[in-house]
Amino acid sequence: MFLEQGISPENKFWKYLIGSVFIIAASFIGQIPFSVAVLYKSYINKQDFPSENAVIMKVFEPNLTLFLVMLSFVFAFAGVFFVVKYWHSQTLLSITTSRKKIDWKRVFFSFALWATFSVVSFFILYFNAPDKFISNFKWEPFLILCFIGVIFIPIQTSTEEYIFRGYLMQGFANLAHNKWFPLVMTSLIFGSMHWFNPEVTKMGSIVMIYYIGTGFLLGIITLMDEGIELVLGFHAANNLTGALLVTSDWSVFQTHSIFRDLSEPSAGFDVILPVVIVYPILLYIFSKKYKWSDWKQKLTGKINVVESSNQ
Questions:
Q1: Does residue 212 lie in a domain region?
Q2: Which of 148, 204, 288, 305 is deepest in the core (most CB within 10 A)?
Q3: pLDDT, position 308
């Protein structure tokens, strides 16, 4: 079983705390090229180093900014690999799935399903209120965006899933020896990591319902499916379609997307809608396709440390 693969008497929770610090440090190292580039441009332009993140994100052309930001996730993923293999004596597969190998069909099915939903839902919004969007499409920068996005955005989203739904979920399972605690903790931490996003500043703290709700969705899928393949596909589709389809002046990333959203952000039922309606439908589709059962045990059951093994 997925959580049990990381549990053993030797794999104490304090090791996950140290491992997390190492992964964070690796991520910070990956941010050095971006910081140095901003510092250099500030120096040659005889300007002060920007103090606000929103300003920093606009120092360079959007494609270059996206590339430099994504580098930190490459380093973070390397940190995850190092910590899992050499600190916990596990394999990357053991924090990926309970299956004998990664089920790529699950990854691609989830990606296709959520990408289709994202595209269709966007164009419904577009045709209902076309005045809120303008064309942002330019062939050359868009093709460069596609190249960078297809390579680096899946690395970014996969890194986040390996950290939260893989590494930390098994870590909290080592601490609590049950399944509900890892689900709750990783979902809350995942949601809180988005607190400083400009979307929260613009729309208010109510948008955290969406972020934390998404964390619970991804955690539930992981526990029910005994692996992170489905969430890998979902997360990659969510971020990639968002980067390619539409950008705005208040979003966390400015990209050379097809459209630009001109509307002023506001939080209402559209924030709660995915959590209370769309996500349950998605869970229903996955549960039927992959024949999930025994929900109570898989989401809240206890973990028998004696019978588990470290892989």
A1: yes
A2: 148
A3: 41
